[in-house]
Amino acid sequence: MARECSVSDLHQAIEEYLALRRSLGFKLERQGALLADFAGFSARRGDRTVTIEGALAWATSPAGADPAWWGSRLAVVRSFARWRAAWDPATQVPPSGLLPARSRRAEPYPYSDADIAALLACARSIRMPRCERAAQPSPAGGRGDRHASAGDTGHTHAVSPRRRPPARRAPSTGCARIAATGWGIFTARRPGIWH
């Protein structure tokens, strides 16, 4: 027969659960705070272990919150309850479909032609500094090199970059994309992705 768990056992079990998961590399900062809140809620209710009723009451306790947040809160307790049920048969694991944590996708903002024109006008007004390479010694008649040759006269020549710096990606603006690089700003009015 399993011994009856006390409220302090629930607090201790939560600490052990968090310590074990953190030793495996999980930070669990948010989950730790939520489980501590759940333990306090259970203590006020007089629950000595995880019950479906208690977990559901705690998960939905922020009245007016987004149902996806309720589902996330319940998922934290569910994960702990699965672990706890391995040696506490009184622990009830809330079913996964009880409060599904489905987040709503953000609605896309369709840019109008006027929005795109204003964005492009603003982008054209930005001045990007050019990447200048310091003057370096170069052997006479040869390509720029970092090291001076034995016959070097002491003159220095600017060495052009061997490779172009990678382009920085800008967010999509509908039918136009703006790319800012060290070589300047340019726009391309074509669909697709920069390659």
**Can you summarize the main beta sheet?**
2 strands, antiparallel
> What is the mean predicted local confidence, pLDDT?
74
Shape: elongated
Unreliable parts? 132-136, 144-150, 170-195
Helical run tally: 5
Radius of gyration: 31 Å
SSE arrangement, N to C: HHHHHEEEE
DSSP strand content: 5-15%
Strands ordered across the widest β-sheet: 1-2
Helix content: 25-40%
Quick one: how many beta strands? Answer: 4
Overall SS class? mainly alpha
Ends distance: 66 Å
What does it look like?
With 195 residues, the protein is mainly α. Among the domains are: 7-84; 111-130 and 164-195, no CATH class. The chain contains five helices and four strands. The chain has helices at 7-23, 29-45, 52-59, 67-84, 113-124, and strands spanning 136-137, 156-157, 177-181, 184-188. Strands 1-2 form a two-stranded antiparallel sheet. A two-stranded antiparallel sheet has the order 3-4. α1 packs antiparallel against α2, α2 (29-45) crosses α3 (52-59) and α2 (29-45) crosses α4. The model is unreliable at 132-136, 144-150 and 170-195 (pLDDT under 50).
Which features characterize this protein?
195 residues; mainly alpha; two-stranded antiparallel sheet; 5 helices; 37% helix; elongated; disordered C terminus
